[in-house]
Amino acid sequence: MNDPKLTDDARDMMVRMARLGPLYDSELPMCALDLDAAIDTGRLGLITGDDKGILVAVEDIVDGVDKVDTEADVRESIHRLHAHGVMLVEFHGDVPMLRIVARKPEKPGEPWIFRGSPENTSRDRLTPTP
Q1: Across all residues in the chain, what is the average pLDDT?
Q2: Torsional sign, CA 116, 117, 118, 119
Q3: Which residues have CB under 8 Å from 79's CB, separation 6+?
Q4: Which residues on adjacent β-strands are paired with residue 87?
Q5: How far apart, in whole angstroms, are the C-alpha atoms of residue 40 and residue 84?
Q6: Is residue 90 helix, strand or coil?
Q7: How far apart are CA 77 and CA 87, in angstroms?
Q8: How far, rounded to the nearest angstrom, does the alpha carbon of residue 23 sit from its chain's CA centroid?
Q9: Rounded to whole angstroms, how far apart are CA atoms 53 and 91?
Q10: Binning pLDDT at 50, 70 and 90, where does residue 91 land?
Q11: By CB neighbour count within 10 A (0-12 exposed, 13-18 middle, 19+ buried), where does 87 fall?
């Protein structure tokens, strides 16, 4: 990828797409690229309620987890959660923020239920997302 016609940003995006594509079954959403760039900063925004959010250090996400050895493992784990719909990326301004899913819609048109939202009842917290 040493084409002089490509900008550094274009090269970076192509490298990210090649690396992330397999994690998303080659149907890479654009927000996954923004999520990956956010991971590069070492901090991720996490929405914890309707009007609340925090910044979390990426290393704290896996603190104490024995099987995660490298930065690449952490990155892959975050992307796999996103690819499976366990975490969604939501933008506030141009900042990507993660929202943890408590319950996925069962039928088209039904809402997503997020952890920390008023719709998130005790049943939602105890029901695993398939």
Answers
A1: 83
A2: negative
A3: 20, 23, 24, 32, 35, 36
A4: 100
A5: 21
A6: strand
A7: 11
A8: 12
A9: 12
A10: confident
A11: buried
